Backbone:
């Protein structure tokens, strides 16, 4: 994988920040090395793992020679920002250390973005796999879609799956990259980039395998609530801001009404009566009566 660039084959910098994903990190790295696209630089950073991730990565680095650094834990956003600063690519692909790229992923996205400077992020759909790497369910089979700020903020269309995001570097530079104080980095950066005038184009084909396991971020409901609401607050000047927050609270209220009753009661207390809907009533049924 050459660090050089040319007009026909722009350099893509793939960044993997690894944290306690020893069972999955090798498959993630190997999927990048197996890409059909020839002009990729791979930068791997271990962000303070306490398992044997470092030893596994070092064994692969000895064979394949990619850039690898070990650091004390800084968090994903800081790690991404620091690694982007030394990356050489005009296109940036942050990639999860527990996910797998399909072989044609980067090639398809680069070809798509070449003549579309208005596209700040290109994405695709995903196939979910379980902790053992076996498919779980079918691909979502969603059509191509172009997202602007309103689409993302108001959730008017299906979103862009995080394991497939490919950023135009100039778009990241325009908005100041990722924000360390918001630990759910994808939604914030998508909103910042689309608000600055770029589009997110999501190709209607699976480009990555998303691994579902016990430590997935979306399963931490309190983490999701705190960071999504913190993200929305950055755009509180939007006239739909109260409605967007209420819709999110309703969704999370229903999800956690059984598993985290304390959080559910907090969400219910923060939800103005005018935004109560069917989800609110179903959640209350779960809280009071244990109903579905």
Residues:
């Amino acid at each position: 994988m050459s660090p050089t660039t040319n007009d026909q084959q722009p350099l893509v910098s793939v960044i993997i920040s690894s944290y306690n994903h020893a069972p999955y990190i090798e498959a993630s790295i190997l999927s990048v090395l197996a890409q059909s696209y020839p002009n990729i630089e791979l930068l791997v950073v271990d962000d303070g793992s306490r398992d044997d991730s470092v030893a596994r990565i070092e064994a692969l680095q000895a064979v394949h020679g990619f850039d690898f650094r070990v650091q004390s834990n800084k968090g994903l956003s800081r790690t991404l920002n620091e690694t982007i600063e030394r990356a050489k690519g005009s296109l940036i692909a942050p990639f999860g250390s527990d996910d797998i790229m399909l072989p044609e992923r980067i090639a398809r996205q680069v070809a798509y973005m070449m003549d579309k400077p208005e596209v700040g992020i290109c994405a695709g759909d995903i196939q979910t796999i379980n902790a053992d790497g076996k498919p779980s369910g079918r691909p979502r089979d969603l059509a191509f879609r172009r997202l602007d700020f309103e689409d993302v903020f108001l959730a008017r269309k299906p979103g862009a799956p995080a394991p497939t995001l490919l950023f135009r570097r100039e778009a990241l530079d325009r908005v100041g990259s990722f924000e360390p104080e918001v630990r759910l980095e994808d939604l914030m950066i998508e909103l910042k980039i689309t608000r600055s005038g770029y589009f997110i184009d999501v190709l209607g084909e699976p480009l990555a395998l998303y691994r579902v396991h016990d430590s997935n971020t979306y399963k931490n409901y309190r983490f999701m609530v705190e960071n999504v609401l913190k993200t929305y607050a950055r755009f509180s000047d939007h006239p739909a801001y109260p409605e967007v927050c209420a819709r999110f609270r309703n969704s999370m209220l229903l999800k956690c009404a059984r598993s985290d009753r304390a959080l559910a009661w907090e969400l219910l207390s923060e939800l103005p009566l005018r935004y109560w809907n069917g989800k609110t009533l179903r959640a209350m049924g779960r809280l009071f009566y244990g109903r579905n």
The domain at 12-211 is CATH 3.90.550.10 (Spore Coat Polysaccharide Biosynthesis Protein SpsA; Chain A). Residues 241-256 form the longest helix (16 residues). Confidence is low (pLDDT under 50) at residues 1-6. Residues 65 and 290 are 55 Å apart (CA to CA).
